[in-house]
Fold these 2 entries.
Entry 1:
Amino acid sequence: MTDKFISIEGIAKRYPGASGATTTIFENLWLSMARGEFACVIGHSGCGKTTVLNILAGLDAPSEGAVIVDGQAISGTSLDRAVIFQSHALLPWRTVLGNVGYAVSSKWRSWDRAKVRAHAQTFIDLVGLTGSEHKRPSELSGGMKQRVGIARALSITPKMMLMDEPFSALDALTRGTLQDEVRRICLETGQTAFMITHDVDEAIYLADKIFLMTNGPGAVLAEVVENPLPRDRGRIDLHRHPLYYALRNHIIDFLVTRSKTFTTETPHHDPRDVPLVQIGKPGLTLAAGSDELRQTWMPETNPGLSA
Amino acid sequence: MTSSSLRLRAGLVSIVLLAAFLGIWHLATRSTGATTTMSPEYAKLMGLTATQGKSAMPGPVDVGAKLWEHVRRPFYDNGPNDKGLGIQLGYSIARVGTGYLLAVLVAIPLGFLIGMSPLLSKALDPFIQVLKPISPLAWMPLALYTIKDSSISAIFVIFICSIWPMLLNTVFGVASVRKEWINVARTLEVGTVRRAFTVILPAAAPTILTGMRISIGIAWLVIVAAEMLVGGTGIGYFVWNEWNNLSITNVIIAILLIGVVGMLLDQILARFTRMVTFPE
């Protein structure tokens, strides 16, 4: 991980609260991702996951700190960072082709109509919506709407995709299919992806790295869990992998108990040196105790972040 | 029951109600026969009301006959006090149209600005709140004094009464465009002007059109009163002139036509509203 494609450096988000006090959602948050990596953030509601994503997208500005993408500090939104919204956020007065085309023509303003259409069509075909180009969002099912959202995000050929619980409003079957699609597309195009999710299995299936966040306010990034499953994992035999349950239990344990107690139990937690948990690696422990987890941190895997 | 049969039955009930209304009207105003005996010459002078018990209120047959006369010759012009109903309606519609269009040209861009700027919205709110409830006719003397032209004053009154619903609806529509649609435009680096036309305008269009529909209704209500005041031409002036002529028949016809034209104006705007409404 020498290539730090995305680097979140000490960001904080504070809101003015009642009677002059400020509420700190999180502060001093450090996080980095390599190019082509798929990262999932897991944490309870209110821990600031969405705020982190919005800051990455440029929709929200951090109260402190900076975000560096591809060697440059970001300011505001960019066509390099596509967002897939939880509520799909399609423009209801435009057709499928119109919605994707709107993104395409926003990126390449000099393109003529035919070129925009052809380009949009490629991505509509990619997400399997061929034949529905002229339907309006109201005529589509939830899954199809989210496909359009994915096609719109991909059509601008972004450097990275930001997804805010993109599948949480879908039924289990549709969610599974779309996870497959997103995984396939991200692997094929080598996308860097940052996804917020509440679904542990979704994170295990999709992510290379899983960021665990404690409860807010005052949330911290507690651990970075490396996914031990092979890159060419399949949905069907995922749970047969020897490390699957160890990984799953580790995340569930965190969500159930440690997300609440982490800050008090780990007073010396250094947000710049977040422990990297490598489940199943020889010489590493797999326990849920925070003291033992300190030992699992391997500084050489986080160059540049070490103090 | 299918909807077509429901419409059929509703239509039937409407016709029955209309027939009942016309029947009662006819019975209430018909002649009851000779009430007093008098010499034929004297009776001729006294008219049907005195001799036959005929009501002073015209019956549906009188109104129908007179209406037919008007429909056959809508555009005659026999001088200032005797013009065809088509001409009078034309004047009114032209005044409403002019004042209304001017209001559209001011209210929608201004509403856009106010809706997009929380500062302007807060700063202008007290003015709008005070100006909005003023009866448009209260402006009339001021308009007559400053403009010194009765016809333009009427247009100004239409302008001032139709501006508020459009302005407030535009502000509301623009201010309440879904945040996620704005965010889509932001992540696509769409500029302010393009965003206003490709996201905010289509998203706010149904609300804006609803405001325009309310406005045209108010404008049509106000023009009758305004023309009664300024006189000269128009359907409002026609009503007042026929009242001075004691022609209740013509007054009733004018009332009917005002209703029909008002309905048509509303339907036109309703059609536009349907065109820009999007299902979610």
Entry 2:
Amino acid sequence: MVDAQPPSSTGPLGKREARLAWGLLAPTISAVALVVVLPLLAIFWISVKPVQLSDLRAPEVVLREDLRGSPEAPGDEATLRYRLRNSSQEQPIQNVSFEDVIPEGLDVLSVDDRCTLAGRNLRCAFGDWEPGFREALTIPVTVNQAYFDNGIRPQDSEASVEGRSSNVLTNATFTFDNFKRIFKGDEFFEVLWVTLFYTVFGTIGALLVGLFAALLLNKSFKGQGILRGLYLFPYVSPVIAVAFAWLILFDPFSGSANALLVQMGVTNEAINFFGERPLALIMVTLFEIWRYFPLSFLFILARMQSIDTDMYEAADMDGASPFQQFWALSVPQLLGILSVLFLLRFIWTFNKFDDIFLLTGGNAGTRTLTVNVYEQAFAISNIGAGAAVAVVIFGCLLTFSLFFLKYISQEEGL
Amino acid sequence: MIRQGYITGPVLGGLWLFVLSVTVAVAMSFGTGEAFRPSLILSLLWGGLAGGAMVALGRGRAVQAGVFCVLVVALIAGIGPMFVGPDTSGFAKVFGAILLSASFVLSLTPILKEIIPGALNRHEFEGAVIRFLTGFGYIFFTAIVLIPFYVMVMTSLKNQSEMIQNPLDFSIDPSKGVELFRSYSELFTQFNFGTYLFNSFSISVLTVFITLAFAIPGAYAVARLRFRGRAAFSRSILLIYMVPMIVLALPIYIAFSMTGLRNSFWGIVIIYPVTTIPVALYMLQGYFRGLPGEIEEAGLMDGLSRLAVIWKITLPLSLPALASVSLYVFMIAWNEFLLAFMLLDDPSKFTLTRGIASLNSSEIPRQHLMAGSVIATVPIMALFLGLERFMTKGLTAGSVKG
């Protein structure tokens, strides 16, 4: 008797299916690889490079030519002048040379020893140039009738310039200065502390407020749909619009919030909500809670509505009070979604950039890691340091993600 | 101790009156621009008395009317739970008094529904507390959601000097007519907002189509086809979905600067879909998994190829999911700020969000900034309110990203 064995290898049908699957996934994989994986690798590369914002424009040889001496009649002498310079003040250019065609009607009397003349083709080689180097090359010529007839001037024929410059992005200079710079002193720990405060309180706050809102709307009444739609406003409107609305509402000079507080006697003088430590950090955290509570609210509400009502009826029969029902029935049922939401929101709050950038620009003690990337790269123009901060963020993120994948269960379906 | 009718009633009454007097004071201030000021002590006192009366004497019509009259008189006499500034017009004062008293009486009656003199059981006590918290919650959420939008719209209709004169006065003067909308017409005539609106719209629509073209086949493969590495793939989508944009923005900025894609319409059209494809793929594969496989198998048996099955069976069945994913992607693209801010410099290529950012300067009045914000917010809200059901479903179907 032969034992029935499950097939040990994939059959032709299975192979065809796998091929189709990879075919369907190929566009996505290539797009994601191009725009996510490649930049991630680039970030690591840039973070160990001394790159400034100005280095992004490669140094080049700037060439201008003109004819000096204003010749008036055939036979006059004139000078053909080439002015060249290295556009970069920081980087050298190697093997600079150019080629040009001398126009008809100019007879070259003598050429510089760095140049060779073949027919009307002039070729000059200059070797290596220091940063900011300038060179003026003059070639004496005599002008004949053809020059006046054809109207071609020296600058009409574009000279072709060559020169190799080492790009700091691709050369082999490496440095750890970027990391040293960002870890230097108390600044880094302040950034880290601000990030943690913002992330932890923003996440927990949004969860609790969302839970409260979900409890409110977890009953059917007229207008429930409208209220649910209304409560999602902060989340669906463009961040730039609501951030500016907050800034205007809380403006220290013409803001309504201040006027209201003064009038109610809470404070005597205007409060600069987004400009003072530590109030600014609290305000951006409140903004984060305000903007993202709708999301927690939606998810918690969806989960609540899927809880079986029989359980509550049974609890009612047994005499459980509303609070007892909440603690003993609802909370355990919601724990799954709450923990998933906490983990996800934690990561995304950690990643948040736009909100703080628009509200305070990272000033007044609100500079989180993500804002620091922008600050280093664009405000201080040190791309390398910005990339180093990005690497730190990515490291944190990877840690969170491992934790996340370990704890999140597949059936939560998020 | 607190579960005594004579304690619960006054405590809830006092707190509730305070909540309401703050609400009415803020609403009246915003509505009229005049000075209204709630008083904590007097609110607790009057509310406590009213609560006590309602517990002791029952909640009949006579008691309600009595509480109402006493409150109105106290408010007008200036010893009520809400003070009114000296310059306030008599009409506003009386209106505020009636509004506060009426809303207090009408809402406290149901809150104290089961509260009786003497000891309360858990149900009665917790029921009252929950009704109090519910009322507070509705007021709180409605206020925090509406106030910023109200400020946004009203600021866009008022000029700078009016704003500084009295920041609380949001009343508008309808006699000004079209002049009210001056900032809007200036945005469209002098600041190119028509172009920005068109750019934002076309970029968002293109993003939706490109995203779907990539995400549908991918999601189908992950949801339905068996291949090695499927689980790893679906996890890595989730991971990619968590990479912060600011980390990617730096190399993208460099690459775009070097290739000349920076500051171009197509550069943005290339980059936006890539940020939305993982989300869309994740949402769609969840939906595809929920579709019954038998229908597709029947199609396969009848000789359709896989691609034909996707086109003729799966897609028509998943139209609701496609609608919600499209809406969500549209929303992301419409609201996107960081990439537009970093990659666009040329005003003729701005998207709306980038255009609003350019209005944030000391030379341009606030009015314009807020009018720009309203222009960016209204379309997405209209779209969202019109298709709210899809949107809610789509958001919960697999995205917690913000």
